[in-house]
Amino acid sequence: MPKIEKSKILVVNDDAASLLALTSLLDQWAEESNYEVLGARSGQDALRQVLLHDFAVILLDVNMPGMDGFETAEAIHQRARSADIPIIFVTAFLADEIDRLKAYQRGAADFMFTPVIPQILRAKVQVFVTLATKNEELRQQANKLSQRTTELTATNKRLTREIEERQAAERKSHAKDEFLAMLGHELRNPLSAISSAASLIGMAGAGADTVVRARTIIQRQSQHLSRIVDDLLDLSRAMSGKILLSRQATDVSALVGACLDTFRATGRTGNYSLNVDLAPGWVDGDPTRLEQIASNLIDNALKYTPAGGTIDINIAEDGDFVVLTVTDSGVGIAPELLPHVFDVFVQGAITIDRAQGGLGIGLALVRRLVELHGGSVSARSDGASAGSTFEIRLPRAVPVQAAPDQSDTGVAAGKASVLLIEDNDDGREMMATMLDAYGYAVRYAADGVEGVEMAFANAPDVALVDIGLPGIDGYEVARRLRKDPATRSVKLIALTGYGLEEDQRRVLEAGFDLHLVKPVGIEQLLAAIGSCEVQTASAK
């Protein structure tokens, strides 16, 4: 504990001799009793001393010119800091009862009469000095306790925060472990089916029907693997804000209707009662990403609604928003899960997700994509077995009038000549075979240098160029073809496994017309080549 300062005693007396006598008498015991004595010759001087120091007791002469003892006492006790200082009035005559009452009303603690008896003076002063010392000790102890309480409170808050952060990290780590376990499960299933089908095709004596079924299985499971990879990549891009939206005026009702047609064609909706009400609703968005949002919501409803259940899909305008609502009569959402249903990894840790299959990242991806479009997503459910409702709100845009029929514009019916530059042997062979089956004349090269030479020798209409090529990469291929007047007008389509905004920017800066992310489906590839054919025909 810090050292206790000496208590202070103030003696106030206008008579110099009396003041000296009292202060000298008190000084005799000052060292022993651990106090110091100060003097004042008037009430005003006493008030100045009180402003500078805290006193254990004040010995105040009653009869002083100007401001007497009673007035001085009253002034001292009017200040909050000095209001509790005990005052002993010192008087040379025997005070009557009226004077005593007046003194106590002014805050007097006691009376002493001159001549002062030393033993009585020492005893009375010692009581107040001891009391002041104890009060100071208690004050310091209280300050120390307050400081310690503040430190303990801060430490407790820090420990509580660290515990919460550790628990959150453990939950997140556990959720990631569950997610990785599910990812392994989801990848092994199609890989196992593909491996078995491939082995079946290679078996001697395998019938034609068996081979056809095996090929169908390989195609279906390959598409499933592609969707898994796409979801993972899209979620990563969306979370880092690196998805580049290709915005255009889009009718959400037409887009959702096309999604439903796909689900119906694959037999996914056959065991359900669908109630569909799709009013026109135009938004400024990326059709591919909007279709991804709708597909994930519909797929989620189908996945978690038992056969025979009901699914309602509605689109309506609400003020400045287009609202897509998907309601199902399925398993519902538990109250503790509902606030976290759009969080990454959270669904992956739920048992029912593992039972139903899938990675459980669809809703997290939906939220990211909706937010990129400036919209919002919400979920409602009354609990387990009570079904659920998901609502997407997107900013409304001005409707676009249908474009005039272009069927008689005179676009050439001939197929474009295609140059394929791809270093992966299997990928190159399969893509060339598919394009050949659709009537395209395809030449191909296995590296960048060979591809450039082939283009210079006979310029194609369209060049499909892999980015990661040996020798010179796809970016350099594009730069060289754009630099030469003979190949400057060739339509260049980049094929790459990288789909971030930065990758697309580099592709376009290098001179490419389009950017396709592997794996590229035949429909997507044909559409890309077709758009290049239309542009070439229009230029002619």
UniProtKB/TrEMBL annotation:
Superkingdom, taxonomy of origin: Bacteria
PROSITE patterns reported for this sequence: HIS_KIN, RESPONSE_REGULATORY
Presence of keyword Coiled coil: yes
Catalytic activity, reaction form: ATP + protein L-histidine = ADP + protein N-phospho-L-histidine
SMART domains: HATPase_c (SM00387), HisKA (SM00388), REC (SM00448)
Name of this chain's protein: histidine kinase
Keyword Lyase: no
EC number(s) stated in the UniProt entry for this protein: 2.7.13.3
Modified residues (4-aspartylphosphate): D61, D466
Coiled-coil residues: 128-172
All residue ranges annotated as the Response regulatory domain in the record: 8-129, 417-533
Gene3D superfamilies with a match to the protein in the record: 1.10.287.130, 3.40.50.2300, Histidine kinase-like ATPase, C-terminal domain (3.30.565.10)
Domain Histidine kinase: start-end pairs: 182-398
Keywords per UniProt: Coiled coil, Phosphoprotein
